[in-house]
């Protein structure tokens, strides 16, 4: 979110899903779309079938990569060099849109300076992508009438994740492929309401609607509306909270519906941090490795037992309706309201519709919405008043921040690359039948039957060198931890790389990953660390 | 037996597919795609089709649990909320509001997220609120 917000003024998808089918060239980067976002993957495949060109950038030969017109199989962690190289080819060939650059953007000289060293030869030697493919991809993206970039965690889960996003924004601005139907830079969100949690101010630096907490006027507005003086010290990010627990400056945590022991990098570090809390309160629907550490666990209500709204990747706010009463007798909203009243801040037991109205009144970009209106139609924000139809496409005539800001970036190599002791590169992600830490999908019998245990994909040549066969029992070891798995031999992963999904609490792959993070977004480098494999 | 259909949104990825839960006598019988949903247009992925299985899985937590040593003891709601408020007030008043951190959830609704960040900023008095958007 931080990267796109700096370049354009908003971190959200620029164009709606419907637009993907209006695109002439789809550039999919670091997204195994058919597995992680199947309904978007379906649309990409449909557009490919009806004549759209498909370029996939991924070290793995994913299902989409198999179908692609061009597959750029870059070395993991070389995204910035790859896109700098493509932009240099585009600029040298005169495929860039000079009038768009002059009218709509700033800082273009910085881009020219950054891409200058990335000759096709230099780009090929760092990324491993052959020159002729670089030229074909550059021409296809830049010269199509409407080209769209779709990206996911393969871009952001790096120590230079923000730079990776900004280099994509640079590419779109260079070619004027933004602000029109079928164009744009489109991050696919991993969770049902990750967009909404950000929009609602579930962030240390923002109130609802991305209103900055360090702005005294904003603070005064919320202090008045909420009838409570507002804190002035900046808040901590989730990573900083874990560090503060270790240091002893943070004493208590409340965790609602999250499982950091399995989802965060370097799991043993997280576990030790939470173990130091004087009081850990968890609210969840299932026991998890995180609730095991809690002093008090409250049973949460699932989505089927909740009334309210979710906001998807497209910024589309949709109604969530209660099908069953809360299993444990209390909605999540009521838990928060009751706790607040007991702590001396009156929060009446308002209905979700009333809470939504209160939020909209304080959030200019959602002011025109209400549950009544959303019962008739879903709406994409910004939707500033009751008659506004919502805004599926951003940055049409001007960027949210005014002018689009070119970054112009240098290469940051990954924090930990394979060496003599740990000779393989571990890449992590999702499998087709499970979801994140598996708390939900592993309890669905049909899904669990598909994928009952951790299977690591490895190249047949690497397997042969270690004397492994299909299904061999192995241990994956990194400097931080070790998990048991079975080997699956496939050349969809490049030689020297192992891919493993994160879904298994009994074999948590994040025991191995590195806690190295992007300095701005604090997103961990889940996609790259060094491991070795032993036969069991 | 009355069968009800509730149109709602899938709780997994960020696509936001519309799904309809078919319920009778307090149980979900099946999940079906919502025909006119803007994102999925009457289709669902394999995770979406099976979503009801986790909602009514016997492992669901059904009552507050207080840890005592290695054991957990069930509590009624009133005692559990009293205990939580007492502990949080004690820590807030002893070490200051910034000694409490809150992780909100990308799983939960906008309304729940709004309430929890308001809780952090008013009932506790801290901006220490974040969630897993960074992961």
**What are the segments of chain A in which pLDDT stays under 50 over at least 5 consecutive residues?**
none
Oligomeric state of the chains in view: heterodimer
How much is the radius of gyration of chain B in Å?
19 Å
Count the DSSP helices of chain B.
4
Structural class of chain B: alpha+beta
The percent range for helix content of chain A is: 25-40%
Structural class category of chain A:
alpha/beta
CATH topology of the largest domain in chain A: Dimethylsulfoxide Reductase, domain 2
Name the CATH architecture of the largest domain in chain B.
Answer: Single Sheet
Number of domains of chain A: 4
Question: What is the rounded Rg of chain A?
Answer: 24 Å
- Adjacency order of strands in the biggest sheet of chain A: 16-20-17-19-18-21
Q: Main sheet of chain B: which strands, in order across? A: 1-2-3
Strand proportion of chain B, as a percent range, falls in: 25-35%
Helix content estimate of chain B = 25-40%
Describe the structure in your own words:
The complex is a heterodimer of chains A (536) and B (135). Chain A has four domains: 2-188, 3-Layer(aba) Sandwich (Dimethylsulfoxide Reductase, domain 2), CATH 3.40.228.10; 190-232 and 308-322 and 332-387, Rossmann fold, CATH 3.40.50.740; 236-299, no CATH class; 424-535, Barwin-like endoglucanases (Beta Barrel), CATH 2.40.40. Chain A contains 22 helices and 21 strands. In chain A, the strands form six sheets. Chain A has a six-stranded mixed beta barrel with strand order 16-20-17-19-18-21. In chain A, strands 3-2-1-5-6 form a five-stranded parallel beta sheet. In chain A, helix 5 links the parallel strand 2 and strand 3 (70-72). In chain A, helix 6 packs antiparallel against helix 9 (120-127), helix 6 (79-93) packs across helix 10 (131-143) and helix 6 packs parallel to helix 12. The longest helix of chain A has 15 residues, at 79-93. Chain A is globular. The N and C termini of chain B lie far apart (44 Å). Helix content of chain B is 32%, strand content 25%. Chain B has helices at residues 46-49, 51-55, 77-95, 110-124; strands at residues 4-9, 18-24, 27-33, 65-68, 71-74, 100-103, 129-130. In chain B, the strands form three sheets. In chain B, strands 1-2-3 form a three-stranded antiparallel beta sheet. A two-stranded antiparallel sheet of chain B has the order 4-5. The mean pLDDT of chain B is 94. Chain B is built from four helices and seven strands, in the order βββααββαβαβ. Chain B folds into three domains: 4-55, ADC-like domains (N-terminal domain of TfIIb), CATH 2.20.25; 61-95, no CATH class; 96-135, no CATH class. Chain B has 135 residues and is an alpha+beta fold. Chain B is extended and about 55 Å long. In chain B, a hairpin with a 2-residue loop joins strand 2 (18-24) and strand 3. At the A-B interface, helix 4, helix 13, helix 15, strand 9 and strand 10 of A face strand 1, strand 2, helix 2, strand 4 and helix 3 of B.
